[in-house]
Design brief:
alpha+beta; Heat Shock Protein 90; Ribosomal Protein S5, domain 2; 9-stranded mixed sheet; 5-stranded mixed sheet; 22 strands; 19% strand
Length: 644
Amino acid sequence: MAKEKAAAKTAEYTAKDIYVLEGLDPVRKRPGMYIGSTGLDGLHHLVWEIVDNSLDEAIVGHAKNIHLTLFPDNKVRVQDDGRGIPVDTHPQTKKSALETVLTTLHAGAKFGGKAYQVSGGLHGVGASVVNALSTYMKATVCREGVRYEQEYSQGKAKTKLKKVGACRERGTTIEFDPDPTIFPTINFEEKRILSHLRQQAYLTSGVRITVEDQREKGKMPYTFYFEGGLASYVRYLTHGRKAHHENIFYAKGERDEILVEAAFRYTEEFETLEESFANNINTPEGGTHLTGFRTAFTRVINDYAKQHNLIKGENEGLTGEDVREGLTSVVSVKIKEPQFEGQTKAKLGNPEAKNAVEAVVAEGLKDFLERNPQDARLVIEKCFLAAKARKAAKAARQTVLRRGILEGLALPGKLADCYLKDPEQSELYLVEGESAGGSSKNARDRKFQAILPLRGKILNVERARLDRMLDSAEIKALVIALGTAIAQDFDITKLRYHRIIIATDADVDGSHIRTLLLTLFYRYFKPIIEAGYLYIAQPPLYKIQQGKHIEYAYAEEQKDKVVAQLKKEKAGSMNIQRYKGLGEMNPSELWETTMNPRNRVLLRVTIDDAAAADRIFDILMGDEVMPRKKFIQTYAKSVRNLDI
């Protein structure tokens, strides 16, 4: 009876169990809902939110300069020469408009009125969220010759708004310190910030954006200023790639009060690079504006080909896949009330954006093709070549990836599979060479570890289409072992292993093979990387033995420390063995150092910046020699552990 009463008391659910979070407390309680995460992505999202407010002033023509400063103590300052956030009393809150904007969710000038016809802000939460997640924030506003200041902490005002003097300039300056109790790591990455703000400068032609990093003494600031808009951005994105035609397409127009800009250029590559923006906010998942661009593009290319008798028969038209092969394109819309999915704004949902983009791009592309017949001919030829390759690749897929093979009924003979069939518990080692393959098969735990030895260097897929790729026995075996199929047939839910581990030798050939495999996964199995299923094994570089005592070192610095420590603690001769190949280890050593989950070190492969990664793969693995030579010359002095 007593137990029943105790249980009833534990299960009690009354009004006192309902918590009401006031002000900005919801943001501090669930920061991920507002900035995506509390990792480095979320940390940098704070910067984007403040910069977006300054860019909104630039978009509507009231600001020309934005200055971002990174301080040694992790403080960030963003300054613009816009109109300045209003400081008069707000009629609803009875506080200044500045304090209202910085301490209240869903407060701002972007919900109505004429202050912002277009804006990156949607929810009115940007600046206030940054305030909530900062231990300190200071706002300085110059309006009508007067300088105002107010300080905040964790979403609340610390001081009253005060006049601190006169000023000739105008604008808003926001300084903030991220809260270390919210963000486990506070490290603003200059490269990430420069990449983002360079992009914003291309999207807002005529605005000057300066980045000053004071964390390193004597470092010169970076300044971005572009008048060419999206055409300049496409030129930047295709830098280092061989252009397929001379002129860059650019169109700009307005439909139904939506401003549309689009630009593209074809290169000699096979990959497609599409970037889309709504009110300068990058939409990595696309949305209606990108759909409108694709629809118009495919339709106009087909219409032009038919009008010039390049398509014979009704069933031989070009598909969207055909016209996008080798295409680098950017589409941007400025819209009054953007409907994003989530606060991180990954996808645009406005139906009217599709129609506006479709109309502007269709009109501009028709004109471009007629005015540039040489470019038009080259574009159409490339599209038909892609269509031919698509049909050949489809035939190759159907030949290689028969239904029985895809279901795992005919796995490659060289694959030493594991007993478990649960992908979450299973892992596949991609091992370089037959010798290492033999050692790995003897070293593994057969219950959950599968081994697929690869003979020599696989085909460089950066320089080959899918049909030729599937002629490679090594790639064919890998595709069948993974179980996901490839290209249009790819299905990550059929992946047979949730840990795919690349294990190559610690020499130049091993590095090359690893790079070829990474290129293959990046180009054809990117969802596997994005899901966090791809790893690189970290076998030891050295075996250090003194008497019966054995230790392994995975880096030069670790080896030096181990050697120094053993010299202090133990007497006697010491043997240091440098491993260059996995095949040099006996099965017990390989298990203990590289395959045993308790001891091994695995490096998870991630894609922090897809566009940057794409350019690096093009440089290192593409046909053009000069960009690769320049890259090597630039970074030669920073090379470590070069095998000679």
